[in-house]
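Give me the fold.
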Amino acid sequence: MDETVNNVISFSGGKDSTAMVLEMLERGEKIHSVMAFDTGWEFPQMLEHWERFEEYTGLEIIKLYPKKPFEYWMIDRPVCHRGEPEPYRIGNGWPSPMRRWCTREKMKEIRKYLKNIDGAVSCVGFAADEAKRVGSVSGSDIVQRFPLIEYDIDEAEALTVCRKHGFEWGGLYDHFRRVSCFCCPLQRDKDLKILREHYPELWGKMINWDIAQGKDNIGFKGYRTVCDYEDIFTFEDKQIELLF
């Protein structure tokens, strides 16, 4: 391998990025560093997984952070029209497919880290059955590779690899097919209901953040707020109780 290439792991801690590192180590690939962006919205079980990963592999996770907490961006940031001094709203609101300010802040810090490493190659954990996602993270200023695609390891196999090494994430993958920020609006309604049932303390945080946005709350998914979802799920629970 070219000695000028420095493989930098873009690590979320999920099954794919974890399997990617394990497979690279097994194949004798050199790893310059493992970096993870801590949004402050990770599942506690994921943070525990990060610690166990470090102990198991001997690799230190370099943690990157947003300049200001995501709660500030979502709830407290003054938002102004270009050239106007007075804000027309307070807070960016929940992220959405059209307002992915969280991803923007994440990529800003990741690019900054990579730019300080000579010959940096960002290793991204897309599985073999996710090859269509490759274009979604490409950027002319970042050299990338996708080891799981190179090794022809799909999502199911990635989870098997991780479990073979004893990783269980405190049961997260028993409940969810994918694990990202616990409050991600891009997750399915089904997953929101699972979150509410099995992780009520995290669901409670989401309700509090939802309420804190006040009149500037433009919705969590579509035009539905988290509080709207709470009402829907509460109604559904009552209907089930009546049936049984």
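The first strand starts at residue 6 and ends at 10.
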